[in-house]
Design goal:
The protein is mainly α and about 200 residues long. Helices cover about 55% and strands about 10% of the residues. The strands form two sheets. A three-stranded parallel β-sheet has the order 1-3-6, with helices on one face. A three-stranded mixed β-sheet has the order 2-4-5. Helix 2 packs across helix 8, helix 4 packs across helix 5 and helix 4 crosses helix 8. The protein starts with a helix and ends in a 13-residue tail after the last helix. This is ClpP/crotonase.
Length: about 200
C-alpha cells in the first residue's frame, strides 16, 4: 500500500483506493481457505507485522523481531490492527503500537507456532509443517479455519463489517491529518520528525 500517495493526495477517492488495496491483501491471506505458513527470518516492520498475523502457522528465527513503527510517522496501524489485537491482546498491542519498539520473537512466542535458533532448523520446521498439512484433508482444513474465525469473533455476525467500517474511518481520518502528511514526508526525506513542532498537547 502506497501511503505516500494517499498522504499527499487531498482526493478522498485516492485515499479510499489506498485503503481498499491495502485491506485486500490482508483479507486475501486471512480468509484464504488453505493453510498459510509464515517463515520469519528477519525484521518485520509496519505492514509486514500484519502479514504475520493473517497466517495460520508461524515459524520464526529467534533473532527475528517486529516493530509497529507507524506511530513514529504520525500514522495509525489501522488496517493491520484488526489482525494483531485479537492475537496479542489489547494491553500488549497498545504497548507495541504506542512505543514502536523492537519486539523479539521470544517475547511473542505464545502467538507463534515455534521459535528456532538456526536457518537450517527454520527451513526444517517449515518443511515439517508443510508435510503435515499435505497429509490433512483440504476440505476439513478450510472448515477448521472458518470454524476458528467464527468462534473467535463470537456470534456477532456483524462484528467483522463493523470493525472494518471503523478501521476504514480511522484510516481516512488519519490520512487527512497534518501529522500523517508531515510524518510520511519526513520518512520519504529520510529525516526524523520533530513532533514538538506539531504538538497540541
Amino acid at each position: 500500500m502506497d501511503l505516500s500517495m494517499a498522504a499527499t493526495s487531498s482526493d478522498e477517492k485516492d485515499q479510499e483506493a489506498a485503503f481498499a488495496n491495502g485491506i485486500k491483501v490482508y483479507e486475501a491471506l486471512y480468509r484464504y481457505p488453505k493453510p498459510v505458513i509464515a517463515r520469519i527470518n528477519g525484521p518485520c516492520l509496519g505492514g509486514g507485522v500484519g502479514l504475520i498475523f493473517t497466517t495460520d502457522i508461524r515459524v520464526a528465527h529467534k533473532d527475528a523481531y517486529f516493530a509497529l513503527t507507524e506511530v513514529k510517522r504520525g500514522i495509525l496501524p489501522a488496517i493491520i490492527s484488526q489482525y494483531i489485537v485479537p492475537e496479542l491482546g489489547s494491553q500488549k498491542a497498545k504497548e507495541y503500537m504506542l512505543t514502536g519498539r523492537k519486539v523479539s520473537m521470544e517475547e511473542v512466542k505464545s502467538a507463534l507456532s515455534t521459535v528456532v535458533s538456526s536457518e537450517q532448523e527454520l527451513d526444517q520446521r517449515v518443511s515439517d509443517y508443510a508435510t503435515m498439512l499435505l497429509e490433512s484433508a483440504p476440505g476439513a482444513m478450510a472448515g477448521i479455519k472458518q470454524l476458528v474465525r467464527v468462534i473467535a469473533e463470537g456470534n456477532d455476525v456483524q462484528r467483522s463489517p463493523r470493525v472494518q467500517a471503523y478501521v476504514k474511518k480511522a484510516f481516512l481520518d488519519m490520512m487527512k491529518s497534518e501529522e500523517a502528511a508531515y510524518g510520511i514526508m519526513s520518512f520519504m526525506n529520510k529525516k526524523k520528525p520533530d513532533w514538538s513542532s506539531l504538538s497540541k498537547l
